[in-house]
Design brief:
The protein has 10 helices and 14 strands. The mean pLDDT is 96. It has 3 domains: 86 residues, no CATH class; 69 residues, Dna Ligase, domain 1 (2-Layer Sandwich), CATH 3.30.1490; 91 residues, D-amino Acid Aminotransferase, Chain A, domain 1, CATH 3.30.470.20. With 297 residues, it is an alpha+beta fold. The protein has a 4-stranded parallel β-sheet. It is globular. Bound molecules: adenosine-5'-diphosphate (ADP) and magnesium ion (MG).
């Protein structure tokens, strides 16, 4: 099993989620192939892959790094295939979970109502569907790192401004803004950000089976612990959502409404997702076991 990692080589003692995942994957039996850390803008990602010996038996691979542009993902996938290596998600499966608008039609009843906007003259119609205030994000990412007001709009002029701003960032939007009903999530407040901190959990799944899960936000609160019944609800919803999607490896973020019900907030490709409070060792051990079984059968 091959791990394509954008962690520094040699691995530092301490580091970000990419380093932590790399360390855990090595313990779980993966072999590391180091790629440059900023694949889209510096360094040649394909050179280390071209140096791989062609495999006699097909070998599974997982990538841990920063979100690549679609063309970069496609190029890496194709280069690996030529060496006899199969990256866990093919390019369509990868994009199907990275770009929210691709998954939305299948998840519509499990997630806040959402409208895709590519031009500013579509904003008013979107507001008529989802209501105001609305939540705004790009097809790939929101701008929550800047603050809550970058993600919410209470009026049409605000909505137009938020959508225009996110569309100006190809990194977040890739040409598509998502305008969503603002869901009343259970939350608390922290000093570090004005983003309401929801009761929200990240679940990593492989072929529909949860591998590991953990609280999404990096802040402790007394509502973080899930009762066994709640945990079963979260994992049950994650399974239902994953069953409708094509990617073998995916992540789902699931949050609780004030009403107590649970809903899907977003999804992603774990190859490029943060770990949140997910312990990397059991996650990578389970993934390694499952990939090993697939290659035997
Ligand atoms: N429709 C929504 N209603 C209420 N809160 C939301 C909604 N969508 C997202 N959020 C909150 O905003 C946070 C960031 O949104 P998200 O779609 O996960 O963007 P990112 O990709 O940047 O993480 C989520 O973790 C959730 O707490
Ligand atoms: Mg998120």
């Amino acid at each position: 099993m091959l791990l394509l990692t954008q962690a520094p080589d040699p691995l530092p003692d301490d580091g970000d989620d990419i380093v932590a995942s790399t360390r855990a994957a090595l313990v779980a039996g993966f072999t590391a192939l180091h790629l440059p850390p900023d694949a889209d803008h510096s360094g040649d990602l394909l050179a280390p892959i071209a140096e791989l010996a062609v495999r006699e038996r097909r070998e599974p691979a997982v990538w841990v790094g920063t979100i690549p542009e679609p063309a970069t993902y496609r190029a890496v996938y194709a280069a690996l295939r030529d060496r006899g290596v199969d990256l866990v998600n093919d390019p369509d499966q990868h994009l199907g979970v990275m770009e929210f608008d691709r998954a939305y039609p299948r998840l519509a009843d499990l997630t806040p109502q959402s409208v895709v906007v590519t031009e500013l003259d579509q904003v008013e119609a979107a507001a008529a569907v989802v209501g105001l205030p609305a939540f705004v994000k790009g097809a790939v990412l929101s701008r929550k790192h800047l603050g809550w007001r970058y993600c919410v709009a209470a009026t049409l002029p605000e909505l137009r401004e938020r959508v225009a701003a996110v569309l100006r960032s190809p990194y977040h939007a890739r040409g598509r803004a998502i305008v969503r009903t603002l869901a009343p999530l259970r939350h608390h407040r922290v000093a570090a950000t004005d983003v309401p901190i929801a009761r929200e959990y990240r679940v990593f799944l492989h072929r529909g089976e949860p591998l590991a899960h953990g609280y999404y936000w990096p802040y402790f609160h007394d509502f973080v612990a899930l009762s066994p019944a709640e945990e079963a609800e979260v994992l049950g919803l994650a399974r239902r959502a994953a069953a409708r999607l094509d990617a073998p490896l995916l992540s789902l973020d699931i949050a609780q409404l004030e009403s107590g019900a649970w809903l899907v907030i977003e999804l992603g490709d774990p190859q490029f997702s943060g770990l949140s409070f997910i312990a990397p060792r059991p996650l990578w051990r389970r993934l390694a076991e499952r990939l090993a079984l697939e290659t035997c059968s």
